[in-house]
Amino acid sequence: MIFLKNHGDTETAVKNLEDARDALKIYDIIYGRRLIEDGFGDPLHNPAVPDIIVVPIKGIIYTTSTAKIAEHGGLSDDDRHVACFVSNPKLKKTQYTNPVSTTQVAPTILRALGLNERELQGVQIENTPVLPGF
């Protein structure tokens, strides 16, 4: 993720990234209107949204560390599609195949503990539902 001090530098930065695409092992560059269309948000209206998202070729990790061998999170299917298993004797065996979000895990745990999941700011702001079956 690249956050620029001047949003007006986005096109220049993208051109420089495109010029170095092979050397930097870049698979995709997401910026501009596509950030909004892909659901990341608008950096012009939300400071938490980067101006540019660089997606490296699978297996590439950008770091200066000599010890790092793995990364968490990302934009690949392997990073974004995760299995979720819940076990509790009070639950009946059910399989859901509809997409869910990892943001639903925290409110689901709170509800399972008998706590109010609406106490989480993220749940309030995004109206995050608990996982199906709870």
Task: Explain what this protein looks like in three dimensions.
The protein has helices spanning 10-19, 21-24, 33-37, 77-80, 105-112, 121-126; strands at 26-31, 52-56. With 134 residues, it is of the alpha+beta class. The two termini are 35 Å apart.
| SS element count, helices | 6
Strand portion: 5-15%
Report the oligomer: single chain
**Main pleated-sheet profile:** 2 strands, antiparallel
Strand order of the largest sheet: 1-2
Form type: elongated
Low-confidence stretches: none
Output the helix-strand order: HHEHEHHH
Query: Kindly, what is the distance between the CA atoms of the first and last residues, rounded to a whole number of angstroms?
Result: 35 Å
SS elements, strand count:
2
| Percent range of helical residues | 25-40%
If you compute it from the alpha carbons, what radius of gyration comes out, rounded to the nearest whole angstrom? 19 Å
The assigned structural class equals: alpha+beta
> How confident is the prediction overall: mean pLDDT?
86
